[in-house]
């Protein structure tokens, strides 16, 4: 079962917005994880387009996810 593009778009933008709000509130690691997953959803929307429109946002999302996992705790 595939997600429709509209549902995927709404969920992805909601995740990005949640990530930005969490980042503003000081929860940087959680915020960047939400932004990474939301960006991955936006990239999945363009899977039918040319290669660069799909792979570049996907690579950025994966890099952001890895960076968020590797962040040290800021206490």
Give a count of the beta strands, DSSP E runs of length 2 or more: 0
**Main β-sheet, in a few words?**
none
Uncertain runs are none
Helical percentage: over 70%
**End-to-end C-alpha gap:** 43 Å
Mean pLDDT: 83
* Contiguous helical run count: 3
Number of domains: 1
Structural class: mainly alpha
Topology order in helix (H) and strand (E) letters: HHH
- The coarse overall form would be flat
Report the sheet-strand fraction. under 5%
What oligomeric state do the depicted chains represent? Answer: single chain
Provide the gyration radius in Å: 13 Å
Structure description:
With 75 residues, the protein is mainly alpha-helical. The protein has one domain (8-68). The protein is 77% helix and 0% strand. The protein is built from three helices and no strands. Helix 1 runs antiparallel to helix 2 and helix 2 (28-45) packs antiparallel against helix 3 (51-70). It is flat. The N and C termini lie far apart (43 Å). The mean pLDDT is 83.
Give the topology, please.
Blueprint: H1 5-24, H2 28-45, H3 51-70
Helix pairs in contact: 1-2, 2-3
